Amino acid sequence: MIAENKYQIQLYSMLALRARLKLEMVGMKGRGRTAYSLLKEELGIKGNKQKVLGKVNEIIEVQQKGEINE
């Protein structure tokens, strides 16, 4: 996937953060801030990791549908 505009860059960023969140949910740890905290701050979502993942999946689905229609 080649990110050619700001919407594609945002989508790619969301996909990467979603992948990181899934790894965090199964116990993987990393350095720095967690994807969970980054997504909550960036999107203004409240709730546990499972709820945040569900909301991120909805956002990604909407963005991908919008990209297809353009």
Structure write-up:
This protein is mainly α and 70 residues long. The chain has one domain (6-69). Helices cover 71% and strands 0% of the residues. It is built from three helices and no strands. The chain has helices at 6-25, 35-43, 49-69. Helix 1 crosses helix 2 and helix 1 (6-25) runs antiparallel to helix 3. The longest helix has 21 residues, at 49-69. The two termini are 16 Å apart.
- Total count of helical runs of at least 4 residues: 3
The pLDDT mean sits at 88
**Beta-strand share of residues:** under 5%
Which structural class do you get from the secondary structure elements?
mainly alpha
* SSE pattern: HHH
Counted beta strands:
0
Cα end-to-end separation: 16 Å
List low-pLDDT spans: none
Largest sheet: none
Number of folding domains?
1
Q: What's the shape?
A: globular
What is the radius of gyration?
13 Å
Task: Please bin the fraction of helical residues.
Answer: over 70%
Topology:
Elements: H1 6-25, H2 35-43, H3 49-69
Characteristic terms for this protein:
about 70 residues; mainly alpha; 3 helices
Give a quick summary of the entry.
The chain is mainly alpha-helical.
